[in-house]
Write the structure tokens for this entry.
Amino acid sequence: MRRRGWVAAAGCGAVVAGSMLARLPLVSRPLTPDEGGFLLVGSQWSPGSSLYGNYWVDRPPLLIGIFGAAGELGGTIPLRVIGVVAVVCSVLLAFELGVIANPRDGARDDESWAAGLRVLAPAAVCAVFLTSPAFGAPEIDGELLAVPWVLAGTTALLLAHRAEASRRRVAYGVAAGVCAAAALLTKQNVVDVFAVALVVACARTRRGARRDLVIAFALGSGGALVAGVMAAWSRGTSPWQLWLAIGPFRWRASEVLRTYSPSRVDRAHDLVAAVVLSGAALVVAAASTHLLLHRKRDRVTEGSSPLATVGVVLLVWESIAIASGGSYWSHYLTGLVPGLVTLTAATLEHPGRLLRGISMAIVLAAVSASIQLARLGPGGSADTAVADFIRTRSRTSDSVVVCFGHPDVIWQSGLSSPYPLVWSLPVSVKDPRLHLLDKVLEDRSRPTWVVVRGGLGGWGLPAARTQRILSDHFRLVRDVDSTAIYHEIHGPRRVSG
């Protein structure tokens, strides 16, 4: 291995170690509502009364399966370890993109130490932003778990585009298709690999190349999607109900968000600020300037790489996906990482002094992420206190309903919920008159515990009748940080404060 190879390998190891060291101390932080909710849903997923077992959530099946595996292994720490594995895999794939992009031909073949370090730029970008609290770290969500699939699919498509042997193109194409389907089955709006496939297909069409790559990609993605949907069906999640959850439901949910969630505007502003303060905007600006200047100098040849176009297309689509998400939580920004990585890798195809500017942008982003990580407190929330209160005073036969959202309380309490809608947005869309909730609270097998966070009347819900039912059948036993805990009046066990 030449000097550049040794430097690149050692640098990649250092970047991987740094990303692990940044996330490992955070594995025991309290769960977020989404993390606890997905663990709750995944851990009981089997044929039941709702979409996923006895609960309903607008997420695709691979995500629920991953959380189910984490739940079987113990919950919080296994889930966070899975997150660390996703980050490490993403960094390694980003490094591979850097190797693909870095030229080693003729006069431009550079074996210097600087050339070895240059290959690390995409991996460094990946590590920095997947460990940045501005991008939602350390939360494990669909966006983070989809990143390795997107980078793997993108890498496979670029390798297929370069491959001369038909067998290799077909193999890479099938692999890319599987990755595209896996990303979509992890987060329903992550169609990034399909966008990359479109760019590569257009590039090959201009060259008059054979369509074997397109066919292989279609077979891989189609087969993996069918397999994923059928696997979910075998566990009680029908394809039609799954489509209603991740398709039409989102349109109805966007209407509810626009009407009843004014705080989302503030969160949208926070996302824009996070893109700037995290250094992501600086990386995009430096890489774009470098590529635009070199585009004027270099003649595009017949066999030129579509990497720069792929990077731009990814960033554009990922920005659209974030804007259309509606709620604008910080972990949405994790979806930008594949675009940032690919755009940075594209700059390596044009070595020059401007790469120093990109390196400086990456260093500043790393400093920003380090400062944010250092300022993270020990965590903890009212949800943990509420769950602890219920868990220490409940029996295994008890059940709990949380009004509304905060499904992590259910998971941490160790109980189940007879109400299938454990997030607030599905309640507003699927039970807007609270008829189902009222039926659950009035039923003879009503829940033992009811938790009300901030009142019943939010999101435009008509809560008068629900409040009367709550007063008739439950009594307030504790209030924790504006969270009321009720216990069934005629329950089997008296609860003391």
Residues 94 and 415 are 41 Å apart (CA to CA). Residues 105-109, 299-303 have pLDDT under 50 and may be disordered. The chain is about 65% helix and 5% strand. The longest helix spans residues 76-101.
